[in-house]
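hi! just following up on the protien thing from before. the input was this:
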Amino acid sequence: MARALVLTVIGEDRPGLVEALAELIAQFEGSWDESRMARLAGHFAGVVQIHLPDERAEGLIAALGSLSERGLSASVVDSDWSLASIDHRKSFRFELVGQDRPGIIREISSSLAALGVSVQDLRTVVESAPMSGERLFRAEAELAAPDGIALEVIRAALERLADELMVDISVESGSDAG
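and the predicted 3d structure came back as:
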């Protein structure tokens, strides 16, 4: 029987951190399923979903402490493997671009939560605008709506919010994306 785990890791960024984590996972016969990793403010931060034989899981969990020798701090949670992947057919894409200011994600996430929409994947960045050099905030997300909520209802709510926040928002169904 397989066991699914979600690992989070963070450490001062330097070469070899992903290798150290991958090596440890492979040592316990784990399979790297999905991950999100980034360099943020000089630190490496990552989240990894793995699965491995149930009898090897406790050994891996105990061995995670050894990553501190390589400069990584790690934590782990058990996951329900049946819920481990996103059903992209029931999801939709969301993109936002606007002048950076505090509270954008709070406002958007509050509006989505009120509709019962779940954030499956979120990526944000602040960058300099071409020409003006102003700080632009960009967000891309994959979202999942609950049964019974039409995409048009969500789109209308986000467009009203876009007007209030003075940002550009686009929403498209998963089948329209990519």
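The mean pLDDT is 90.
Residues 2-83 form a domain with the Alpha-Beta Plaits fold (CATH 3.30.70.260).
cheers
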